[in-house]
Design goal:
The protein has 589 residues and is an alpha+beta fold. The chain is built from 18 helices and 28 strands. The longest helix is centred in the N-terminal third of the chain and has 15 residues.
Amino acid sequence: MAAADQEPHASAVRPRSYQDESYEFGFLGTVGDLQEAGVLQDVVLKVEDRRFPCHRLVLSAASPYFRAMFTNDMAESRQKTVVLQGLDADMFEELLSYIYSGTLHVSLDKLQPLYQAADLLQLDYVRDTCSSYMALNVGHSTWVDLYKFADDHFVDKARKHCLQWICKHFAKVATSEEFCSLSVNQLTEIISHDELDVKEETTVWEAVVRWVQHSREDRLHHLPSILPHIRFNLLTSDDTAAILEHPLVREDPGSSEVIRNVVQKGNSDLKPRLGNPGMTTEMAVLFNKENDGILFMNPRDGKYISCSYDPNIFRHATSVTVTSDNSIYVVARESDDEDDEQLSLFRYNHAENVWGPAGMSSASMMLELAAGAMHYHQILVEVDQVLFYLALEGRSMSTLLRMTKYDRHTDQWQECSQLQPDKRFFTMVALSCGPHLYFLSQLEGTEVHRYDPSQDRWCKRTPPMITKGVCTAVAMGTEIFCTDVDFTQLMVYDTESDSWQKLQGMPNPGNMFVDPFQDIAPSLFVLENKLHISFIGFDREQRQGGYLVFVYDRSADAWTDLKAPLPDNVASGFLCPVVRIFLPYIKGA
């Protein structure tokens, strides 16, 4: 027999492992069927006046609480019927359904008792899901009640979300009945917050008075400990005098002494509140890779503020976005290597003027789900409070776009429908407009695609008549404005009618022309409801360049040069969407 025909020696055949991907789901389904049929049940759990026949093995596998009960030498391990104390029967039925099916149904009306039951039974997934649901739905429920519950049960993520929401809507929250049910520690945490959105500090004092008077005899003695958290440096002398004459203060000598000491010593180190007039302004944000910082700018008002931060964030930054809640996110590689697939996601802290981890699962998950996607083109964009990450697949002119989204319920990135345009593309722009995401690509012909998050579906739309490729685009209302790399055409897209219109007026930089070799990418942006365009221009005669910013007048179809005097050290970077900045919190302001 020829060597090629011989069977391989048994010792040369290596063992292999096989994974049955359907086994997990099939096994769970079978367990659920056994429970529904009442087969092989070996224990009855009694909750209140109801009885629940179950399987010890299934309960032990799902919960450390039951595992300890049935495997240790406890009386319950030998009993046929086990009484569970401190549980609501309806909530236990919900949790039992989750244990046997893996499906959890959460709603606001049962959120708190469900969390408490899951906490008792050590069902971490249920507890974490309730926490995420709580944080996500703060604006749709009783804010103060959720805050109190999260604070009492150490649900830190939800507590922070509730606190932010209460601070943002403090004037309304402070007049509610629920506000008066806060503990003294919860009250002081709220009124101490830098981001408390109040136009006048007297609003804080009036809220404190309302809280104390709700239970005067029990709360009046807390007033001296509460008063230092009111920012008397933001009050006029007349306001302070009126507070000193208030019956609550006059009734408690300790309160008067506290106020006089605070006023005498001064608490000028306390910053203005977020809502104080003149404290916030819209600014475009220019990331400067040369000096590892940011230039906050409002060219129309002549405001320019430079700040330096951790160089590892901006030097390796690949994408930036500003979300509807005014958060700035940056996606950055962990090294200079463009092939590095380790990504980090950073978030800007307005109150402390610092950058830190975004507080969500690893950004590298975005690339793991979009396997093979290249770092060269990446976009991070928000649609209806959901973050989406887009990346090209491959290392050259690609025909495939992959996208993932961040699920705040599960703290995970999930893969979305991929997009395969008709033609190859190399440049791309993605932005949100209304409830949809729009994707514009260019190489062998411009294409426009719209993504519907509710359907997880792409559809093709009418393309603009731009021959040199879409360089930048921005949404304003229901319209999308875009232009090519040389600013030879400016187009506006009506998303409702799926139609394009060419605008006649174009920026006139005089002797300057667009410098395509600069590292600062040309950008359209909307500042104070006005369309702006920024780019580096170069004067052939003077042999020098400069940063140009023009503002557009829609009624006149004309651009005006703002003659923005940018600092000389702005050498390279990119412009991200406009953000509302709290000026006193920026170093150097």
